[in-house]
Amino acid sequence: MPPAPKQKTPPLEFYVNRAREMGALHAMIIGPEKVPTATWVRLKCQYGCGGYGKRLTCPPYSPPPERTRQLLDEYRSILLVHCDRGKAARKIVTKLEREAFLAGHYKAFALGCGPCGQCRTCNLEKGCAHPRQARPAMEACGIDVFATARAAGLPIDTVVERGDAQNHYSLLLIE
Ligand code: SF4
User: Fold this and answer.
1) How many angstroms from the chain centroid is the CA of residue 127?
2) Ligand 1 first shell, C-beta below 6 A
3) Residue 149 and residue 133: Cα distance in Å, rounded?
4) How confident is the model at residue 3 (pLDDT cuts 50, 70, 90)?
5) How many domains are there within the chain?
6) Helix axes 86-102, 12-21, angle to 10 degrees
7) Domain enclosing residue 131, as ranges
8) Residue 165 confidence (pLDDT) above 90
9) Which letter does DSSP use for residue 80 in this model?
10) Does residue 161 fall inside a structural domain?
11) 152 C-alpha to center of ligand 1: Å?
12) Could you tell which of 130, 132, 133 is best to mutate to test the pocket of ligand 1, judged by most ligand atoms within 8 Å of the CB?
């Protein structure tokens, strides 16, 4: 039998509470089966988004849907975070990824939302300038964010007018 780990990792509820403390409107643990991937998501990035190919965290650099599916299925517990600002949703999961890793959840990996905003111009030639903070968005990896939020009973609608409510989601793959 392999030796038992010496570290005592916190229960998953700890990360739910941490996300709420950090400003999330909602946070909950879900399974990978609640996070659908689809081919069409990639096309939305490729045709219609001005950010395509401009950030290392966006397609074509980010993993395609089929690889993301494999990735998600290597986990059984995923933290879903809901915020009213994209920057907050990104920041919470990247910070918690580090915390979770150091606490012994060695597989922890964050998926944010929207294009990476760390640098004015992305360092496409030389590699990422902020590898600790830069993580691909859920949609950049082919995740159907609308279906994920709705399966969790959380709000999301297409934004039609500038003043419409905004709902942003991010994930922390934990264990
Ligand atoms: S941190 Fe900078 S270099 Fe790295 S992906 Fe984001 S914008 Fe690009």
Assistant:
1) 20
2) 55-57, 116, 118-119, 122-123, 128-130, 134
3) 24
4) confident
5) 1
6) 140
7) 12-155+167-173
8) no
9) E
10) no
11) 30
12) 130
Q: Which pLDDT tens digit goes with each residue over 17-49?
A: 999 999 999 999 999 999 999 999 999 999 989
Q: How far is the CA of 87 from the centre of ligand 1 (A)?
A: 14
Q: How many CA atoms, within 13 angstroms, populate the side-chain half-sphere of residue 104?
A: 9
- The pair of structure tokens assigned to 19 is 């996300």
Chain centre distance of CA 136: 7
Contacts of 86 (CB under 8 A, 6+ apart): 112, 113, 114, 166, 168
Give a yes or no: residue 2 inside a domain: no
Q: Which atom of ligand 1 lies nearest, measured to the CA of 123?
A: 3
Strand partners, 112: 137
Which residue out of 52, 54, 56, 133 has the highest number of ligand 1 atoms within 8 Å of its CB and is therefore the one to mutate? 56
